[in-house]
């Protein structure tokens, strides 16, 4: 069975996205050391998924950084060689998700992220199984109950729990 994992980057894989975005700004970025804080177990999980034959796609949005710098940000976090593709968009939409499904044939699709608005809702609209890892204020599991089809969402406590998905 070929599984496709569509992973959010900021606050899902890397836990200090604001800091790591500043690193890529002109002048200011040259003064800051590049320190990425990966969620616990990220490299281990990505390696395990790859060993199983799963495909890993990073779907990340950018509003501040140009696309090339956002891709560089993902690679500098030390996971670039563990993913099949990095897709940068201005906005995550169901159409973007459906485009990924068309481009990457698979048997089962999971879209993993920390945001109901930017990860869960586009996944539901795109026909992909949403996996929600709550982080931050107001983004708890209770907030899910305010959206349609919330019962279709898989809620995980940690990124490491991904390897247990069927």
Question: What does this protein look like?
Answer:
- The protein is an alpha/beta fold.
- The protein has a single domain (3-164), classed as HAD superfamily/HAD-like (Rossmann fold), CATH 3.40.50.
- 36% of the residues lie in helices and 17% in strands.
- The chain has helices spanning 17-22, 28-31, 42-52, 67-79, 94-103, 116-126, 141-144; strands at residues 3-7, 55-61, 85-89, 108-113, 129-132, 154-155.
- It has a 6-stranded parallel sheet, sandwiched between helices.
- Helix 5 packs across helix 6.
- The longest helix is centred in the middle third of the chain and has 13 residues, at 67-79.
- The chain is globular.
- The termini are close together.
- The mean pLDDT is 86.
Which properties best describe this structure?
166 residues; alpha/beta; Rossmann fold; globular
Please summarize what this structure is.
With 166 residues, the chain is an alpha/beta fold. The chain has helices at residues 17-22, 28-31, 42-52, 67-79, 94-103, 116-126, 141-144, and strands spanning 3-7, 55-61, 85-89, 108-113, 129-132, 154-155. 36% of the residues lie in helices and 17% in strands.
Largest sheet: 6 strands, parallel
Helix fraction by DSSP (H/I, runs of at least 4): 25-40%
Query: Considering the protein shown, what is the CATH homologous superfamily?
Result: HAD superfamily/HAD-like
Low-confidence stretches: none
What is the CATH architecture descriptor? 3-Layer(aba) Sandwich
pLDDT averaged over residues: 86
* Individual helix count: 7
Order of helices and strands: EHHHEHEHEHEHE
Q: Describe the strand arrangement of the main beta sheet, using strand numbers.
A: 3-2-1-4-5-6
CATH first level: Alpha Beta
Q: What's the Cα radius of gyration?
A: 15 Å
Instruction: Say how many strands there are.
Output: 6
């Amino acid at each position: 069975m070929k599984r496709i994992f569509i992973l959010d980057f900021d606050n899902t894989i890397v836990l200090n996205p604001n800091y790591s975005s500043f690193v890529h700004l002109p002048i200011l970025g040259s003064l800051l050391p590049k320190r990425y804080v990966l969620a616990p177990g990220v490299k281990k999980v990505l390696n395990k998924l790859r060993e199983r034959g799963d495909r890993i796609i990073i779907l990340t949005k950018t509003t501040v950084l140009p696309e090339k710098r956002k891709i560089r940000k993902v690679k500098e976090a030390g996971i670039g060689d563990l993913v099949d593709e990095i897709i940068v968009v201005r906005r995550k939409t169901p159409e973007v998700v459906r485009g990924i499904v068309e481009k990457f044939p698979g048997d089962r699709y999971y879209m993993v992220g920390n945001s109901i608005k930017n990860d869960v809702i586009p996944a539901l609209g795109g026909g992909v199984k949403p996996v929600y890892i709550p982080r931050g204020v107001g983004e708890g599991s209770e907030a899910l109950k305010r959206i349609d089809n919330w019962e279709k969402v898989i809620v995980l406590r940690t990124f490491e729990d991904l390897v247990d998905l069927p």
